[in-house]
Design brief:
By secondary structure, the chain is α/β, with parallel strands linked by helices. It contains six helices and 13 strands. Helix 5 packs across helix 6.
Amino acid sequence: MRMGLSWNFRPIPNSVDAPKESFSLTGEGVPERVGVFVGSHMNFGIDRLLQDPALRAPLAAKRVALLAHPASLTENLTHSLDALAALDDVNLTAALGPQHGLRGDKQDNMVETADFIDPVSGVPVFSLYGEVRRPTQAMLDTFDVLLVDLQDLGCRIYTFITTLRYVLEAAASHGKAVWVLDRPNPAGRPVEGLKLRPGWESFVGAGPLPMRHGLTLGELGSWFMATLGLDLRYLARGPAPSQSPGLSVGQYV
């Protein structure tokens, strides 16, 4: 299902939270975000999914994979892979790890990881920072729906953004669904820096984003779909572009 989105960056010099040269996102199709924030408690996407069986209902009879990393933790600090593996109504068939690995086994920069069998859940873990950077056919054959639970940093050069783009492109070309279990952008909503110039795309520059982009990973997925013209089943929820970072994150779908 292709989303008809248009995205624009416009100056917001009068914003209380924004530096002088910041920008905000506007435009038809910018996703509205409805989340849960009560007192000092925030529900991330993974926690919403775990708490509400009705939200998991569309996963019935589907093979599910998880793209995650060390910061993919629930509210009680359980890794998302372990939490999903403990559910009786989710058929977890695979996991994928970005740079630094699924469980943080490779923290040094530029150190690649290999595929392995997770010793806790028993599912195969495929590396997207090893021999390949994009999902292979063999990886895609293991799942119908990919859950993405990555804590981004809010900066263009972090490779989790590029990995998201690559899995969205692969999902679109192979008829797979992608659900982003969204998390807040710790760098906040202000946008700073020049956009990446066309032709300079790389693994540390997935597209024409400013250096500080002001988006959550779920919103970045919507942006990739719009700018790349991707056609796939994509679901995500997070904070509204006009809100402060994280105050309504958690409504994953």
